[in-house]
Design a protein that fits this description.
two-stranded antiparallel sheet, 8 strands, alpha+beta, six-stranded antiparallel beta sheet
Length: about 240
Amino acid sequence: MKSRKILTALFTAASVATLLGAAPVTVNAASSNSGSATTSTKKSPKLIIQNIPKLSKWGYIVNVNSRAQPIYVGQSNYAKMVNNPHFKGNRTVSPKKIKNVRFKVEKVMHFKGVSGSPEYFVTSKDHKYNCWTPNAGLQYYAINSKPLQRVLKPLGRIEARDSKRLDRKTTAKGAISGRKRIAKNEHDYALAVKAAKKLKGNQRKFVLGSLKQMKQDDSVRNVMLQEKDNILLWSVN
């Protein structure tokens, strides 16, 4: 899963760079109240940038581990980058050097009529560090804690089960499909919820909220829908 995430991030970054250089776009930022985008251009728009209150509400809880896109250093970059993925700053920093800096997800970018993973604009609390990256380059800051691993492990089994179902190289005997697969997913989901209830404070609130969203998005039946906006599922591997 980790290697697949890295490849996805690199492929997405290359695709985005190609598209950004290919089409003129005019984009107006969405209202923070509505969460929807308003776009005006003489030609059919290709690039869509939206506010994403469903993710922003969780605050500064993600770390950036992307090797695909640079993290730009400097508070002045924030205003220039937030609605302009074309912008390139002068100073960058490796994610390894700021691995303890937490980021907030503020914007999502996708292309109209073009398939592929969206990119997210993230910023640190003081706006010193800013980056556009696919979700494969982001993870919940407490991903390696033992209590959270008890939540992620059953979710990982769901992901692995659903990956085998979609993998054409997997034999019919190797993949679990239909009601049996969904039943196993439901069982593992219940284990994740049970473990989440033992968490404390804001972490408990975040994880239970994410699991509830997973249920609402029907990701229990197919966790491969993790391209939807669910930070917890981005951390499943």
